Automatic annotation (TrEMBL):
GO MF terms, alphabetically ordered: catalytic activity
Domain of life: Bacteria
Species in which this protein is naturally found: Mycolicibacterium litorale
Pfam families attached to this UniProt entry: CoA_transf_3
Name recorded for this polypeptide: Dehydratase
Length: 405
């Protein structure tokens, strides 16, 4: 057996993806970046996410390009018998399907396993009962918006990060790699289901948010930008810059007190309150009083002065920055994770590859296709369909290629 490329450990693996939005597209892109050949199959005209915002001035989706880098694109009329047959043959050839288009009998596990007995079939659904859901409805159903935002706020706050989609996408990629390992070792294929809601519920349970309610009978309070259970808080400098400061350990806390000139005041506060402030729980309990002490120093120093002082300590900190500031910063421009990418229809920009370095090297970003760019090539390479037959399928509307997709 030939050794695998450490930067492309899934080289030689073929995967068909039928998807839209975030979770499964992210999974497919991650598997692509690990070396697999991933074919995203879309309906002619594109799935629901093909023109999703943000878009360029010409209306091309920057969002779609961002989640489909490195894949190949096939456009098929999946409502037609001929189109379904072609996709079934592609899946049978690949042996792996990832999808969040649930409830379609023709590409269900039970149907497809008749064509490929060792099929790996991963289906993402909204809820475990088969119901539909998206990240933001799952988030609402699992408690997080009621503990997000300022403590005095009485309304729910949805965070902008689609955390469950992202987590679910990575679980899909993990499930595929685990199933491939099992199959390569002589085992069978796999029927895998990953409900988005269960990803959120598992996370809430693993982080003790649900267990806290079960065991202590308490619901996590809303604490704004404080860090629950330890000391963390945002501060504003004299020139209006915002900083997040975290003191997890006693050393962090001592350094924070020292640079803010409050060591004696903190000791006096602890004595007055009868609190042992070497305990992080006590620091959390008395966070407002501590913040009042530290705020005096932050509000009387400029952002540059704050940054210089914090840089010389063990304190964990960062200045709040906009996406535009981050995009122009050394974190991106001098980060080997990012390489220049000329993305057709979007333009030239720095694009992130896989955020896993193999031997110090990050697999670089590869441009996303346009809808149907690879229809003819994939049908020819994977299924051995002749150019004449592809032309007939195109004229009949069963498939579309390139600009016709």
């Amino acid at each position: 057996m030939q050794p695998t490329d450490p930067v492309r450990p899934l080289a030689g693996v073929r995967i068909v993806e039928i998807s839209s939005f975030v979770a499964v597209p992210l999974a497919g892109m991650t598997l692509t970046q690990l070396g697999a050949e991933v074919i995203r199959v879309d309906p002619i005209g594109g799935a629901a996410d093909y023109r999703r915002w943000p878009v360029t001035d010409a209306g091309d989706s920057i969002y779609w390009a961002g989640l489909n880098k490195g894949k190949r694109s096939v456009a098929v009329d999946m409502r037609s018998a001929a189109g379904q047959d072609l996709v079934t043959r592609l899946i049978a050839d690949a042996g792996v399907l990832i999808t969040n288009v649930a409830g379609r009998q023709w590409h269900s596990y039970d149907t497809l396993v008749e064509h490929r007995p060792d099929l790996i079939h991963v289906e993402v659904s909204g809820r475990a009962d088969g119901g539909t859901a998206v990240d933001y409805t799952v988030n609402a159903a699992t408690g997080f918006p009621l503990v997000t935002g300022p403590a005095e706020l009485a309304t729910p706050v949805n965070h902008v990060l689609p955390a469950w989609d992202v987590s679910c996408g990575l679980y899909v990629a993990l499930a595929v790699t685990a199933a491939l390992r099992h199959r390569d070792a002589g085992g069978a294929g796999a029927r895998i289901s990953i409900p988005l809601e269960n990803v959120a519920l598992a996370t809430a349970g693993n982080l003790a948010l649900l267990t806290e309610a079960m065991v202590n009978g308490e619901t996590r309070p809303r604490v704004g930008n404080s860090l629950y259970g330890t000391y963390g808080q945002n501060f504003v400098s004299s020139d209006g810059a915002a900083f997040m400061v975290v003191a997890l350990t006693n050393r962090h806390f001592r350094d924070l007190a020292e640079i803010t000139g409050t060591t004696n005041a903190v000791a006096a506060l602890g004595e007055a309150l009868g609190a042992d402030l070497t305990d992080e729980g006590e620091r959390y309990r008395h966070r407002d009083a501590l913040t009042g002490l530290f705020t005096v120093w932050f509000s009387s120093h400029t952002a540059d002065e704050v940054a210089r002082a914090l840089s010389g300590t063990s304190v964990l900190w960062e200045r709040y920055r906009s996406f535009a500031e981050v995009a122009a910063s050394d974190r991106v421009t001098r980060n080997p994770l990012f390489t220049e990418l000329d993305q057709p229809r979007v333009g030239r920009h720095l694009a992130a590859g896989l955020p896993i370095a193999f031997g110090g090297a990050y697999p670089p970003a590869v441009a996303a296709p346009a809808l149907g760019d690879d229809t003819a090539a994939v049908l020819s390479e994977w299924l051995g369909i002749s150019a004449e037959e592809i032309d007939r399928l195109t004229r009949s509307g069963s498939v579309a290629t390139g600009s016709d997709a």
